[in-house]
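JOB MANIFEST
job_type = single_chain_structure
chain_count = 1
residues = 274
[input]
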Amino acid sequence: MNPLPNRFLSTSGSRDQATIDRLTALVRNPFAGLAAGTPLNTANVATQQLLRPYPHFTGVGTDQQIGRSWYNSMQARLEKRFSSGFQFQFDYTWSKNLEAIGFLNGGDDALERVISDIDRPHRIAFSGLYELPFGMQLQAVWQRNSGPALGFGNALLRGPVTSFPSSSPTLGRWFNIDAFDRVPGNQLDLNLRALSSRFTGVRAPFQETWDLSMLKNFGIRERLRLQLRTEFLNAMNRTNFANPNTAPTNTLFGQITANNGFPRQLHVALKLMF
């Protein structure tokens, strides 16, 4: 609730050093000696602090129930019910998840409507079970979904927003890094931000995993059974990659250097049922 009003921010499409110098310039602090133990008790203070609605506070915040979201989807299912020892279910969801839960600029009147960080346009899930005649069951679960939409902060673009998605991304160059001005001294500051906080057209890698299991039941007595179960989590030992670096001035900008999830895991368990 205490932002620097938008009217004082630069509207230039490039770094506006004159505005930055003016707003960061130190002036005599009218609150010196009146705010003991706070950063505002100094002799001088940045000009931008005195332009805030409540200049005698460094921050004023509150929780407001004003956010909203929109979710639309098409869902399809193909299912074979259990017969002849076999069943499976295949699900596909095509969706879009939008949200308005934050302000692009501190002084904005309206929330930013943007693609959600939990938006996954395509999700596929398959599960199946096959019961063999000699009492063993085989089970499989396959899941695959799109990666999250990426954002680049208050970045400076050299071209239109359509210029940075790549048609053939690689781990070393996930998107077109040449679409950004990466020179540290050129980066924007104290400007009226227009670049969206997230873009649906450029996303992190999709995530995929196979989980398999086998189990066999042994009858010990009429009401006593022993189950041996073996589970393979991430059975194909697939590497799911993490988000690329999205900080334009970082030397790793556009590169994927980490992974999500875990390597193949084997679990063996005995279960006594009575």
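[summary]
The helical segments are 17-24, 47-50.
The chain has two domains: 1-62, 65-273.
exit_status = 0
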